Amino acid sequence: MTAVLLALGIACCPRAALAQSQDEQLKAAYIVNIALFTTWPLPAAPAGALAVCASPAHGLWDSLRQLDGRNVNGRRWATVDARGAKACDIAVMAGAHAPRNPPADPGPTLFVVDGAVPGSYAGAVALVEESQHVRFDVDTREAARAGIRFSSRLLRLARNVR
Questions:
Q1: Least crowded by CB within 10 Å, which of 65, 80, 118, 154?
Q2: Which residues pair with 160 in a beta bridge?
Q3: What's the chain's Rg over C-alpha atoms?
């Protein structure tokens, strides 16, 4: 009996890790697709890299790095460590580490909060898990503060638009 329970325990762990990895890859795919339907204010260098800032400690780091070099509207996706970044086109934050208030001057940065926590800053885009599915909310006012616009096609796909 103990051997059966041990075998079941060993069998469950890789699946749980695989499911988490798939969730992270799905969230990274959401972010790249959101970027495809986002317009940054000029003068964004169309040939320059699309700087995606995140912490290497964030669960999405590896999945974001796998996107490096991908073409996003004529710009090359480049994941960079947020601690040393000079400028970010997209800043990805864990909800648990998001500040309570929005940045005073967001500049032309799209803030994406993964797992937004009520009462904390949720960014212009909040990735949320609902009924075992990844969804996203959009705050158009926060995006407008940064000079960023979203395609109406993207807004139709959002769970909530504010």
A1: 118
A2: 137
A3: 17
The stretches of the chain forming alpha helices (DSSP H) are 2-36, 61-65, 140-145, 152-157
Cis amide linkage into residue 106, ω under 30° from 0: no
Take residue 36 and report the two structure tokens written for it: 């495809």
The verdict on domain 25-161 having CATH code 3.40.50 is: yes
User: Measuring CA to CA, which residue among 97, 94, 114, 98 is closest to residue 34?
Assistant: 114
Is this model's pTM higher than 0.70 or not?
Answer: yes
- The pair of three-digit structure tokens given for residue 42, joined into one six-digit string: 């000029």
pLDDT in tens, 61-98: 999 999 999 999 889 999 999 888 888 999 999 888 77
